[in-house]
Design brief:
Length: 308
């Protein structure tokens, strides 16, 4: 006999609780994706390409062509063409006449001189220079490397009635000045190689051999001193102002002019000058090694006078 009636209802199954802990990583991932999307939306690809080109050229010791730039950056030639042309037009990169290779111009250096680090250098150095000029009884100036030349960026007069000075803004060839050779000796290798290569384009071979040898010597000795190079009777003494990496931010130079009533000897003045350069260098986390005093100046060789 068949059993009649409704079948018994199944017991209700309890609902499984929602595990919210699993949802948190997904939410975080979604948030990160959204943030990444925002960053991409605000990206400036052309600017980034331009910065890539500048940073690449900063590492080169010689000019490189557009195709080499594209290859080294892993981009197509069309991607870098407009960027390179814009940088050249604005003066950030340049080519030598008749050549296709690009290299950095001095434009970034000019901009850097307007930036607070240069202001910081001058603010730190000038008070020390004033007190040192009194102790040495001589004029002092600070010079920086400006392409193939040096540029005077700070100067203090001698307290003596008569003295020699270089005006702020004065430029002179780096190869033929104590300041310039010492600056070259303590430059990063890429900058030093580029400057020497540019000078070599017009300088006689014998002069270049002597210049390179002198630059190597200055890097070992840590100073330059030469008599009668710019003006007879003046001995130029230069000490570098170094950063934490051992590269020259600038050079402190004293054009020593003796007088008949010599109040401070060349040795005493040089010692005071070195102490000033050392103090300024320490403000930029650099280190100067004290040379063996007294310093022996080399004499500038001049051609014999022509008979009149």
């Amino acid at each position: 006999m068949a059993r009649t009636g409704r079948p018994a209802a199944a017991a209700p199954t309890p609902e499984k609780p929602v595990k919210t802990a699993r949802a948190k990583p997904a939410a975080k991932a979604a948030q990160k994706t959204a943030e990444a999307g925002d960053k991409l939306a605000y990206g400036v690809p052309a600017l980034e390409k331009g910065l890539d080109v500048i940073e690449l050229l900063a590492q080169q010791s010689k000019g490189i062509t557009q195709s080499e730039i594209a290859q080294l950056l892993g981009r197509s030639l069309q991607e870098v063409y407009r960027v390179v042309m814009a940088l050249e037009r604005r003066g950030y990169i340049q080519r030598r006449p008749g050549e296709d290779g690009f290299f950095l111009s001095n434009h970034l250096h000019v901009l850097a001189n307007q930036y607070p680090p240069m202001r910081r250098l001058l603010d730190a150095a000038l008070p020390i220079m004033y007190s040192t000029s009194i102790a040495a009884y001589q004029a002092l100036h600070i010079a920086i490397l400006d392409r193939l030349a040096i540029r005077v960026v700070a100067q203090v007069d001698s307290p003596a009635p008569l003295g020699f000075r270089l005006r702020v803004g004065t430029q002179n060839p780096a190869a033929s000045t104590a300041s310039g050779r010492l600056l070259l000796a303590f430059q990063p290798p890429a900058i030093k190689d580029w400057v020497l290569a540019e000078i070599e384009r017009t300088a006689p071979e014998t002069d270049m051999v002597a210049l390179k040898r002198r630059v190597e010597t200055l890097h070992r000795t840590g100073y330059e001193i030469i008599a009668g190079e710019g003006l007879q009777g003046i001995t130029d003494v230069s000490f570098p102002i170094l950063d934490a990496n051992g590269y020259a931010l600038a050079v402190l130079t004293m054009p020593y002019l003796p007088s008949s009533k010599e109040r401070v000897s060349l040795e005493a003045a040089s010692r005071a000058q070195f102490a000033a350069a050392k103090t300024i260098t320490q403000l930029f986390d650099g280190t100067l090694i004290e040379p063996n005093f007294p310093l022996a100046p080399i004499r500038e060789k001049r051609p014999p006078a022509r008979p009149t």
